[in-house]
Amino acid sequence: MAISSREAHLQGKRHLRKSNSTSQSAPAPPPSQPNLGSEMWTCKPCGRQMIVGNRNQHLQGKSHKAAVKAAPIPRAVTASAVPAASSSQQWTCEPCGRRMDAMSREQHLQGQRHRDAIAQPLSVQVAQGVTPSHEEGMSEEVDGDKNGFTIEGSLDFKIVDLASAARGITLQASVKAKATFRAEIVGCTLASSKGQRTCSPFTVSIIGQNRTVSPSSTVQLKVNMTTQHYGRAEDRLEVTLDSPQLRSQFVIARKLCVHVGDQSTLNDLKPKIPYTPRDKSAPRQPETKIIPGEPAPFSSAFPYARQLPRAKIPGPLANDLSSGTTREIIDKMRSVYLPLVFDSTGYGKHFKHIIWAEEYQMDLDMGHYDMHNAKLRKNNQSYYLAVPGLAEKRPSVLVGDKILVQPHGAPTGIWFEGGVHTIREIEVGMKFNKKFAPKPTDLFSVRFKLNRSSVRRQHQALDWKVVQERVLFPDPEHLGSGGIPQGLPRSTFNPVIANNPRQLQAVTSILHAPAGSVPFVLFGPPGTGKTVTLVESIRQILDANPHARVLACAPSNSAADLIALRLLELGPELLFRAYAQSRYEDQVPEELKPFTHRNENGHYSVRGVDDVKRFRVVVTTCISASIVSGIKIPPGHYSHIFVDEAGQATETEVMVSVKMMADDQTNVVLCGDPKQLGPVIRSSVARRLGLGMSFIERLMGREIYDEVEGYGISVVKLTKNYRSHNAILKFPNEQFYGGDLEPCADPAVTNLYLNSPHVVSPKFPIVFHSVFGKDEREASSPSYFNIDEVTVVTSILEKLRKDTRIPLSDDDIGVIAPYRAQVLKLRAAFRNRKMDATSVKVGSVEEFQGQERKVIIVTTVRSSREFVDYDLRHTLGFVANPRRFNVAVTRARSLLVIVGDPNVLSLDPLWRSFMNYVYENGGWTGPEPTWDTTEPVDFDGGYDVAIRDQARAEMEAFSRMMEGSTPDGRADVEGDVNVDQPWAEMD
């Protein structure tokens, strides 16, 4: 701006207000300073030194205003200060990444583009002075010449092995002058030293006594790096120079970085193909003609007397689901499709539309697995297709499914349908129409089609006309007047229950509940013996009532198998394990095979209605419970319906058994823990409309299921934990269960790792291993992995397995990761290091629910602020998902190890509180926390906002800013998120 305009601006209210706000947002003093009130500050225009506490008053004074008016140029300290503003000089605005002539600087700083740039959130690591990733947070602008002065010499320590890093490595650099004038070094610091509680592996010192930099004199710097921990670290070396010729101080800076890791692991696991997002702009072209293939011979496996409804998504609903934002779609659903009131009258209509929304997303997600340039291998009459991820059910394919293939060069829209007859570990076998006669060299496009049988069974249940009000919407008027049932069993089948009053009460309440009671809830927190109590209840019912019949269900085959395995003493005359026809023989536990039936084609089936009726207990999955209704076993045949792990099933899945098989005399028992993982929901629309809330969770929100008032009548909460060491149990107990859980586990197991080299604190079997890593992706997969955390986990696992003093098998170890890509990288690392660790289970949190291990290692993967924002929006991973956190930390019996980036995890109040707990109990290893672990945690959150505010304050103090970014909030990422979601079992 012109000088006259400049003088008017300096006297204006806007400038004075900005000057005042800048002073108020100044960063906290370094730890070596006393406090804000006694720190000294120099006003350059006035040439006066004063304590910081008097700065605001000084800035409003007449003497300061006069000095500013008389000053020839603004005296701001910048990283690229210029002696004077002329049109020939260039200036870089680092937040915007633009270079311009210095005369345009003031105009640019007032522009909208600059204001938008500085409004961007900063990397959390920049806010704290140390950035763990080479690629993030550090602008390349920090390197290079400033006013003719430079730092020469590489300060990139590159990849260093742990042993060398522990011994320490030193690099040297020189501060040189290319200008014709001299400057004095008045400061040589690291950016990390300005943080409140920062950790840096770097130290810097000046070699010798010389501090003058001139054309004939250089100053030598020594930078040392020492650390005993894997991971990445960055810092910024800031050299402040004072030049009499420039009449100002200025800063030149250089990035410091190091990557401590195993070179071979990094080479083996690094992305083989750079990440390129899938093209989501072009939708699938419609299939105009499908040539049917040969279906699997399932038609006679079950003597179904009831046909499933087609229940196709209505056209108008499909159109509405395909356009608009999530918020707009939800509003449209509520205003057009859903009943105004959620009650028994509109119950079916309400859920039918919501599961249509879920089906719509499931169908889109199947498109993620579309294949191009695929080859088929012919063997007899079948064609085999290799499918990446098949063993992990990504995609989920069952015998009886249909897969579409299209030869390259075929007319658009014409596809051949292959009926899936065989599934092997990595390939599927299909049979096509006789017209299908490809050459061995032909290439194909492949589409996987959603198996709709599960959805259709849920629609069938929702269409069922009979409505049990006392089951769906139980209220006080549905309760009997008898109070808490009494009359303990004469003896228990499981002797452990005899010493557990709450388990005994649960069994007694279930046993003596009058026919037609409200659903009974058995609330079983981790390790409290929920399934044991369920099995004891079934045994007591059968023993007390010779006419009783039980239908026992669970959301997954593994959970259903567990029930059946614990009922083996009933014998095959009384117990039947019903499997879907798509189940393979090798998927069935050997002990259960005598309790099943297979037809002449080898498919699982039933003999007939009368045969099934004679069994006193039928065990199946929630969806396959449709077998008993499908063969026309009448409602009410089963006196009791049990649903185990009810918190993991959607309400509509539970209704397949409850709504179709219960009459007004049937008692329903729901066993689960709504504080742990709920059902897997792929559609954010369906989730927000309530499909993610399980039936047991919805009921527990009703008046009659109060844990205290309803105790023994409608609900019993189990409280004795038989799994974990008290230190492992303590935090989740207080966070999720009101401190009600009592540690009752076997000390011989829980104390295994006390006083061992595997823990940091001798009496505390939890370790938080702090590591700054890097999130990466490869090829077209949106799933993340973190090689640095893989390195740490592998190191921990090797030490555990080599320790012969503590008895531990691979089956005793579990590794939990939130991303599918991390799971695969971990398995690859085990193989590459020739670790015969195939029995070590590595999987997602969902794969561990209901399970336990002596040792659990959790890798949290994330190390970038923007990825945390992404996950907060889509409830992926551990951050901002209390249920996943709860399950992850409650699987361990003897030792719990968490590997993660504390700076990122600390943004979530729950994780911050947990890390405080570990740190205060001495279980921390690796770089220290950067926050005060003794401060109370604000569970309203806002830590990400505080980090950004702190970053801006530091930016203004240094007069520069690093660029930051967040993912596009409008991106089509729902399908990307669902890549890491497991597929719910369809059988």
UniProtKB/TrEMBL annotation:
One of its GO terms (cellular component) is cytoplasmic ribonucleoprotein granule. It is an enzyme of class 3 (hydrolase). Residues 1-40, 269-293, 963-987 are annotated as: Disordered. Keywords: ATP-binding, Cytoplasm, Helicase, Hydrolase, Nucleotide-binding, RNA-binding, RNA-mediated gene silencing. It comes from the Eukaryota. It is found in: Cytoplasm, Cytoplasmic ribonucleoprotein granule. Residues 697-902 form the DNA2/NAM7 helicase-like C-terminal domain. Residues 369-448 form the Helicase MOV-10-like beta-barrel domain. Residues 1-10 have a biased composition (Basic and acidic residues). GO terms for molecular function: 5'-3' RNA helicase activity; ATP binding; hydrolase activity; RNA binding. Residues 500-569, 612-683 form the DNA2/NAM7 helicase helicase domain. Its EC number is 3.6.4.13. Pfam families: AAA_11 (PF13086), AAA_12 (PF13087), MOV-10_beta-barrel (PF21634). It catalyses: ATP + H2O = ADP + phosphate + H(+). The keyword Hydrolase applies. Signal peptide: none annotated. GO terms for biological process: regulatory ncRNA-mediated gene silencing. Belongs to the DNA2/NAM7 helicase family. SDE3 subfamily. This is RNA helicase.
